[in-house]
From TrEMBL:
Protein name: Outer membrane porin, OprD family
One GO cellular component term noted in the UniProt record for this chain: membrane
The entry's keywords: Signal, Transport
The organism's place on the tree of life at top rank: Bacteria
Keyword Protease: no
The family this protein is said to belong to: Belongs to the outer membrane porin (Opr) (TC 1.B.25) family.
A GO molecular-function descriptor: porin activity
Keyword Transferase included in the entry's annotation: no
Length: 439
């Protein structure tokens, strides 16, 4: 087998003649990129929980990728977050917000990307640690360090207007956002478990460590997650995509989405539909799953103003609230109706809707845009988070992005979210100020 693989590599090299001419040139002509990030967060609880927490951190990532040499290139990236000793004693609030850090609310550095990539004509293969952004497994870059993966990824665009994707993912390194959720492998709390799994995270809140996909999701090792997908845009104004995630001995996830653009004069409209189905597979290590989610969105853009309305609904099983919910243990969060922090749309027995509007200030000579949104989640009593109790959770918020003209690639971002009855009686006001400088 090894001999056959070696012969295949030699044959492939012999058919490729682009990129650097020597290994030395491949490294000297490589690309250095990265991001510097400073993040401040402040959350003040009210109602059933009274707690004020905040944190500030600085970090980002530094990446280097060689130029291709006979189609082959190497890439590596370090990610870091640091608190520099600034704690709750010199910040507003009584405690440190954990979502900017790793274990024990401490900074850390991780070799987040380390891969070999091979490109030939319309095909590309990438193996190793890398960043993935797919509907049900993604980076979810909401705090300091995103989710990262160890995977084998193949893409091909030989068919006109079609992208084919095949991947196998073996390990997952949760980003700092995972620390928003408790480790239910320790607490054995079914409510914590349901909240984490439906909000995009798994069995534990470990961050900065590549661990087995099953171990992270449910605390049990598995053979990883195999992915197959197709994207098609061969019909004017229509884009279709279909994904299948086979999480060995856990579940199979089917994700479908269609987007259709409808230009009407100066108005650019778009309608979108999405569907998710989950069913347990193999040894059913996460329990029995048979769940459905349907979402729809209608958006429009006129000049500098855009907006959309969205609706979603899930199925219900009074005997299995978690198994009739949508679990997304590896950072995937494609829902049209999700809030900035409230992600209850994946709970079983839940109808959700969202309205959002955006204004671009470029016509005023200002490189900025602002978004306002409001979400409503009608959670039925067969939900897995507070089973037996029905309530309505709400979230409003804003997101302002500003790009100073004098400093290229600098983004200043101000965000706020204001959930009410996240769980009955739990409210908070949260503000985030983020500086991103890309190079």
């Amino acid at each position: 087998m090894k001999k056959l693989l070696s012969m295949a590599v030699i044959a492939a090299i012999g058919t490729v003649s682009y990129g650097a001419d020597t290994l030395e040139e491949a490294f000297s002509s490589g690309k250095l990129s990265g991001q510097v990030r400073v993040f401040y967060i402040d959350r003040d609880y009210d109602g059933g929980v009274t707690l004020h927490r905040s944190a500030i951190a600085a970090g980002g990532h530094l990446k280097y990728e060689t130029a291709p040499y006979y189609g082959f290139s190497l890439g590596t990236a370090f990610y870091t977050t640091n608190g520099f000793g600034i704690g709750s004693d010199n910040l507003p609030g009584a405690s440190l917000d954990p979502t900017l850090f790793g274990e024990n609310e401490e900074g850390y550095t991780i070799l987040g990307e380390a891969y070999l990539k091979y490109t030939y004509k319309n095909s590309a293969f990438k193996a190793g640690r890398q960043r993935l952004d797919t509907p049900m497994a993604g980076s979810d870059d909401a705090r300091m360090i995103p989710n990262l993966f160890e995977a084998y990824l193949f893409t091909n665009t030989d068919l006109k207007d079609t992208t084919l994707i095949a991947a196998h993912v073996t390990k997952f390194a949760a980003g700092t956002f995972s620390n928003a959720y408790k480790d239910f492998t320790e607490t054995k709390n079914e409510s914590d478990k349901a909240l984490a799994l439906t909000a995009g995270y798994g069995a534990n809140n470990k961050s900065g460590e590549f661990i087995d996909m099953g171990e992270y999701a449910i605390g049990k090792e598995t053979d990883g997650v195999s992915i197959a997908a197709v994207k098609y845009s061969g019909v004017k104004n229509l884009t279709l995509q279909a994904w299948d995630y086979y999480a060995h001995d856990i579940m199979n996830i089917v994700y479908l989405q269609g987007d259709y653009a409808i230009p009407i004069g100066s108005v650019k409209m778009k309608t979108s539909l999405q569907y998710i189905h989950e069913s347990d597979t193999g040894d059913s290590l996460a329990g029995d799953f048979d769940s459905d989610y349907i979402g729809a969105k209608v958006g429009a853009k006129v000049g500098n103003v855009s907006g959309y309305v969205a609706y979603s609904t899930t199925g219900s099983d009074s005997n299995n609230p978690l198994g009739s919910s949508i679990a997304s243990p590896w950072g995937g969060m494609p829902a049209f109706t999700q809030g900035m922090v409230t992600r209850h749309q994946f709970f079983a027995d839940t109808d959700a809707w969202k309205v959002a509007g955006n204004y671009n200030f470029q016509n005023m000579g200002i490189n900025a845009n602002a978004t306002l949104y409001y979400c409503n989640f009608d959670v039925g009593e067969n939900n897995p988070y507070d089973t037996g109790k029905a309530w309505t959770a709400k979230e409003s918020g804003f997101d302002i992005k500003y790009y100073p003209k004098g400093i290229q690639n600098l983004q200043l971002r101000f965000r706020g979210n204001f959930p009410r009855d996240f769980k009955p009686g739990i409210d908070w006001d949260e503000y985030r100020f983020i500086v991103n400088y890309n190079f």
